[in-house]
């Protein structure tokens, strides 16, 4: 059966290409059935693994082949099931010759380079790790849509007006990009004490807008028991007299239910406060009850016909984004298409480029995606092939969606399911680290080596490949990965494709066979806070279970029956006091998130039995982590411990954590020291610590080879630990934020491998030579990898 599966997987790339090109419904049906069979085989193997672990518990059992022996009976049933699956797989394999499929291998991964700037995103918190710094742009960094003079004029206008400022333009034209440059401009940052960014989506209402503003200003999640009036009073108290900038992304007349709330919100700050709105229609201004004043002379010609007769009517300044000119379209295209190599000056290439840009119609997103697609293709025949497919593509109502669909069709087969999984992701700032864990849980990562480290690396390469194709954007490094977001059109494409892939699956099968809502993404998000055991038992093929912020008080024992579960997220359930020990029966569980479960008294007694667990994020009221608990989990590779108000001792016997690569500790205010046994963490690469008021970093005889080291808001730390010098050659990312540390510049310069460093706040750097740009305040250092030189500013 293993040989058959390998043979079938080798022709999947050709099968997917053919069914997309030929629209062969029989082939499409065959592919779905094959994918479903693969999943059933994996689930059955999980059941065999379950039986094996049960036999290894040491319980006295009956004769192995007794009919009354429960384990043997189950094994016999599963053996017959596996035989049926093998026969069915052989039948499917025999049919592959009907479709004339040939063996193909996907393009190599990770050979593309990115041509993106790190666009800092918002201050929206994703768990407790939020983007903590904003890039400060100069006029020379302005988006390609604008030359320096034009951007300077727009920036001056933006700073001078108050009230509402609207950026109007079609989807993919660059509204959010421009908004980010204004939002993060150095002068704008200095002008506004508070800045908030809220993304509007379908089903959005102004009440939720106020909730999101409150959560950002107050730096905590909204309480569900607050009334609308109470919430407004809290926000008003927080914003009273302040100068704030609020960005509302993708507002439209369809999701604007109450314009008066926005007016009230604007009035909560002082007279200099501003609300910047990105929208596809000027009608949004009318829906807000505002008149229009255009921000440029060219557009102001319309103003005379649209001025309101009511002289007392409030107005909004509108800047309408136009499509790129031919010259700027060509420059943007070349920037992406030739980023891996020298630009080709060839009439044939130029002719093909012109025809491609003709279809892109000056829309930056379309140009970047097409340029990225062609960046790995060096032959004229390859360019011509893509151009022909583009011109053969049927245009859709949603502007450039057909262009994005073509770019998706050209993806290697291993990337497609990872992208389709994006249809299930929330519309907010995301962490690549979290998404890779989900890909892994769904079995979307493929590597010849069946170990977690290899899978994690493959996941990172997949993510970088999607980035290089411009399918993820708004990238910002956070030390353990990247913050990113999906463009609304990209997410819409994922939804459309996922719906097409799921035709005939959703709603047509009993719940016991449900694998996914889209392309075998086996998720369940409960509609309410209750979680009866019988509800769980119905979904016995689940791999991912999201129960975050569900206000759940108790997890049923039945959760231990989900044999295929790989990913369990319980974060934010502040009423959970205990977890059933049956959760430790989940032998396939790879990821467990208990972050912000602030009332959790203790971790399950037998947590060490989670033999597959690689990723653990916990909040607990325990005084110490039990010696037979976390410290004995030999497979653990990521451990985050945060918000533990009573924690005094991290863990005992950490020498068992030989594979631990990442350790994150935050907001543990009673923790005074790191256990000296940490010296046994030989695989540790990333150490992140913040918000621990009493913690010191003293360790004796510690020798780490860290790649990333971050400390933030540690008032008890007044110098860099000596053991950090063991990472002089390996350290790549260094962040020291708001720690009362004095550092000698010579010691900093000894870390020759550092590519990115950030030193901000109450940190003093001594001995800096003139011209290096070191300051005693807000010092940022960035290195240039591979050049052997460093740039300081």
From TrEMBL:
Keywords: ATP-binding, Nucleotide-binding, Plant defense, Repeat. One of its GO terms (biological process) is response to other organism. InterPro entries: Apaf_helical, Leu-rich_rpt, LRR_dom_sf, LRR_R13L4/SHOC2-like, NB-ARC, P-loop_NTPase, Rx_N, WH-like_DNA-bd_sf. Residues 159-288 form the NB-ARC domain. Gene3D superfamilies: 1.20.5.4130, Helical domain of apoptotic protease-activating factors (1.10.8.430), P-loop containing nucleotide triphosphate hydrolases (3.40.50.300), Ribonuclease Inhibitor (3.80.10.10), Winged helix-like DNA-binding domain superfamily/Winged helix DNA-binding domain (1.10.10.10). Residues 430-494 form the Disease resistance protein winged helix domain. Coiled coil: none annotated. It holds the Pfam family NB-ARC. Residues 3-56 form the Disease resistance N-terminal domain. Residues 536-736 form the Disease resistance R13L4/SHOC-2-like LRR domain. GO terms for molecular function: ADP binding; ATP binding. PANTHER family: NB-ARC DOMAIN DISEASE RESISTANCE PROTEIN, PLANT BROAD-SPECTRUM MILDEW RESISTANCE PROTEIN RPW8. This is Disease resistance protein RGA2-like. It comes from Cucurbita moschata.
């Amino acid at each position: 059966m293993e040989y058959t599966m390998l043979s079938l997987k080798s022709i999947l790339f050709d099968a997917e290409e053919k069914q997309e090109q030929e629209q062969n419904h029989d082939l499409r049906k065959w592919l779905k059935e094959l994918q479903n069979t693969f999943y059933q085989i994996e689930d059955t193997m999980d059941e065999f693994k379950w039986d094996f672990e049960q036999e290894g518990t040491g319980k006295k059992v009956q004769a192995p082949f007794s009919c009354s022996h429960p384990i043997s009976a189950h094994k016999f049933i599963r053996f017959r099931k596996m035989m049926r699956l093998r026969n069915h797989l052989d039948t499917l394999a025999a049919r592959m010759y009907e479709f004339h499929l040939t063996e193909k291998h996907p393009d190599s991964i990770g050979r593309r380079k990115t041509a993106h700037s790190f666009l800092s995103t918002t201050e929206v918190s994703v768990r407790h790790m939020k983007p903590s710094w904003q890039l400060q742009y100069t006029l020379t960094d302005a988006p390609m849509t604008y030359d320096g003079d034009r951007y300077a004029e727009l920036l001056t206008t933006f700073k001078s007006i108050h009230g509402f400022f609207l950026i109007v333009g079609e989807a993919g034209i660059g509204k959010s990009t421009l908004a980010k440059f204004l939002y993060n401009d150095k002068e704008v940052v200095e002008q506004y004490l508070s800045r908030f960014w809220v993304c509007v989506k379908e089903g959005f209402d102004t009440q939720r807008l106020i909730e999101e503003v409150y959560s950002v200003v107050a730096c905590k999640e909204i309480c569900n028991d607050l009334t609308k009036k109470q919430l407004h009073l809290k926000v008003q108290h927080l914003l009273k007299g302040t100068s704030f900038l609020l960005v509302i992304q993708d507002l439209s007349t369809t999701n604007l239910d109450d314009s008066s709330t926005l007016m009230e919100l604007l009035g909560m700050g002082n007279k200099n406060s501003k609300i910047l709105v990105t929208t596809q229609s000027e009608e949004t201004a009318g829906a807000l009850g505002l008149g229009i004043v255009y921000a440029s002379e060219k557009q102001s010609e319309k103003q005379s016909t649209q001025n309101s007769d009511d002289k007392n009517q409030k107005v909004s300044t509108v800047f309408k984004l136009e499509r790129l000119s031919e010259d700027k379209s060509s420059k943007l295209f070349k920037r992406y298409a030739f980023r891996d190599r020298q630009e080709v000056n060839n009439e044939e290439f130029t002719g093909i480029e012109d025809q491609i840009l003709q279809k892109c119609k000056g829309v930056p997103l379309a140009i970047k995606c097409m340029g990225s697609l062609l960046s790995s293709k060096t032959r004229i025949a390859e360019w011509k092939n893509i151009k022909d497919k583009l011109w053969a593509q049927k245009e859709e109502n949603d502007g450039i969606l057909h262009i994005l669909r073509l770019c998706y069709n050209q993806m290697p087969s291993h990337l497609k399911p990872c992208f389709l999984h994006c249809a299930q992701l929330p519309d907010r700032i995301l962490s690549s680290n979290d998404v890779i864990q989900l890909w892994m849980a769904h079995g979307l990562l493929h590597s010849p080596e069946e170990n977690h480290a290899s899978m994690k690396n493959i996941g990172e390469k997949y993510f970088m490949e999607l980035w290089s194709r411009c399918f993820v954007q708004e990238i910002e490094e956070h030390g353990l990965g990247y913050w990113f977001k999906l463009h609304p059109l990209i997410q819409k494409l994922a939804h459309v494709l996922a719906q097409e892939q799921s035709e005939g699956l959703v709603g047509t099968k009993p719940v016991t066979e449900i694998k996914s809502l889209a392309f075998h993404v086996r998720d369940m998000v409960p509609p309410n806070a209750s979680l009866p055991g019988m509800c769980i038992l119905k979904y016995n093929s689940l791999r991912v279970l999201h129960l975050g912020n569900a206000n759940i008080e108790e997890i049923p024992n039945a959760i231990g029956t989900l044999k295929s579960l790989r990913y369990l997220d319980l974060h934010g359930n502040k009423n959970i006091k205990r977890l059933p020990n049956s959760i430790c029966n989940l032998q396939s569980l790879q990821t467990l998130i208990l972050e912000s479960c602030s009332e959790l008294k203790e971790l399950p007694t037998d947590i060490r039995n989670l033999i597959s667990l690689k990723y653990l994020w916990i909040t607990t009221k325990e005084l110490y982590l039990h010696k037979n608990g976390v410290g004995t989990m030999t497979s653990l590779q990521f451990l985050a411990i945060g918000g533990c108000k009573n924690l005094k001792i991290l863990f005992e016997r950490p020498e068992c954590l030989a594979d631990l690569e990442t350790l994150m500790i935050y907001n543990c205010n009673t923790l005074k020291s790191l256990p000296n046994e940490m010296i046994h963490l030989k695989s540790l690469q990333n150490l992140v610590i913040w918000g621990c008021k009493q913690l010191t970093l003293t360790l004796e005889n510690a020798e780490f080879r860290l790649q990333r080291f971050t400390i933030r808001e540690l008032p008890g730390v007044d110098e860099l630990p000596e053991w950090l010098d063991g990472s002089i050659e390996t350290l790549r990312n260094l962040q020291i934020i708001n720690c009362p540390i004095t550092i000698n510049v010579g010691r900093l310069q000894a870390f020759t491998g550092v590519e990115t460093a950030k030193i901000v706040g109450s940190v003093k750097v001594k001995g800096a030579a003139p011209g290096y740009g070191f300051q005693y305040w807000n010092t940022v250092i960035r290195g240039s990898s591979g050049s052997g030189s460093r740039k300081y500013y």
